[in-house]
Amino acid sequence: MTGAALAALLGRHGFDCFAGVPCSLIEGVIGALERDPRAPWIAAAREDAAVGLAGGAWFGGRRPAVLMQNSGLGTSLNALASFSLMYGLPVLLLVTWRGFGGKDAPEHILTGAITPSLLDLLGIPHRTLARDSVDAQLDWARRDMDARMSPVALLLPPGVLETGGEAGAGAAPSARNDTRSGTVPAPVPEEDRELAPVISRREAIAAAVKQLDDEPVIHANGYVCRESFSVADRPQNFYMLGSMGLASAIGLGLALARPGRRTVVFDGDGNLLMSLGIVGTVASLRPANLVHVVFDNEVYGSTGNQASPSRHVRLDRLARAAGYRTVAAVTGPDEIAAAVRAARADAGPHFVLAKVTTEEAEVPRIPHTPRAIRDRFRKAVERP
User: Fold this and answer.
1) Measured between alpha carbons, how far is 107 from 174 in angstroms, rounded to an integer?
2) What is the pTM of this model?
3) Please, what is the average pLDDT of the chain?
4) For a designed S-S bond to 298, which of 76, 105, 244, 311 qualifies (C-beta 3.0 to 4.6 A apart)?
């Protein structure tokens, strides 16, 4: 079977959004997906980011699949455990099985030996693809993930797909996913002014929320969630209770799945630094409907105020260098409100860095269960 044939079968079984990190065993699959505008392929910087992208796409009404090498299972363990499994999010994991049968390069042997056990430990149902059972196994995967509301995996050992000669056409994903209109403005000159925080993160969140209407907001885990909940608990709020660093990927997946609706991400400096590759992914795909707000207090507040690298690295400058359409660095409540208001009024992607103090409000934990958060959020996103 060719990779193009497998890509066609995936589409026939209703899979319509794909994210992942390439492997030579599926170069033909990815090449076919790159050439097919009906089923977007999102090249993720890391496998855990691909899991986040898939979750966001599911919230937007897609049936997603994540493509990865089995080494990527290790990278994805936390995202799968405290996001996909905890919230109950259906996704197909198409995992190439390097090190199968103990035959491969040395770096693949151990991972190859433990791959099924990793999935068993996570409680993710899995089957192994064979040339004569691909269609039947895809049918099982689709039915099982939808019925269980949970991830399933198909392991792809060497020899099932033809390899070589099916590489991607090199199509730039940004050309397919860019929904902006008009001419891209010249880069904004970098500001050299020091950013002295004057308000707390909760006050900054309150200033931002006042500018929103019914936009879905993906929240980074920790106090960003809890303080936003205390400001205004909305059905349109997705509270990331688990995986640190995943909020921006979830938001990007949702923005791409629902291009007609603006998506907002409330992020933290530690969260963004943990998954910094997403900045390049956002900039390359250029979703016009994404507003990325980072509340930067320069510490890891939930664990004792240890210093974050952001006290030495300006995150807005990284976003500008990557290619976000607009970038703003703000401190006071009026500046924050103006930046969010401007982002809502124009095509993005937009990046807003809000420098805030280290003060943390006394706020309760999120009382909603993960499944309740999932259900009310998806219902809110489905509304026109």
Assistant:
1) 33
2) 0.90
3) 89
4) 311
